[in-house]
Amino acid sequence: MAAATRVTVAPALGLPYGCRMRSAVIADNDPGVRSLLAELARRQGFEVHVAADGEQAKALLGTGSVDLLVCDLDMPKVTGQQLLGWVAQQHQAPIVVVVSGYVDATIQASLMAIRGVRSVLRKPFDILAFASLLRGYANELAARAQPSAIGVSPDEQPQAGQAAG
Description:
Blueprint: E1 9-10, E2 15-16, E3 23-27, H1 31-43, E4 47-51, H2 54-61, E5 68-72, H3 80-88, E6 95-100, H4 105-112, E7 117-122, H5 127-149
Parallel strand pairs: 3-4, 3-5, 5-6, 6-7
Antiparallel strand pairs: 1-2
């Protein structure tokens, strides 16, 4: 019988100590928008990396596990559309939120068909709604990570009728 595992939670983020912090890349060529979106993501418990263009975003996404990508469409070097195409081809695509001033119903439908894209927001948008959306994705990611976050594999968990300890 395996010993019970005690989980200590980092109160500010609701994450068990030793658990990887959720990671986000914010890609927008407008410095003010980029800064605002990054701050909102930080407040929802994300470790944030920022990119001023699609090329920087692609480099950041290629460095490791990224849970969330917030992406503008109108960016230099590599456009948001090109970046989304690349992301969709990766083994493990992050949750993607597209933010753009250039979205109509046809563009929104085509974006939502891209693997990983979960939300499309037209600028300007309600920042409280954006924060709420990120909070929902943070909770979803935390729930997905729950079994591994507590450090107990399924075969180490007590079976029905067994006492932990």
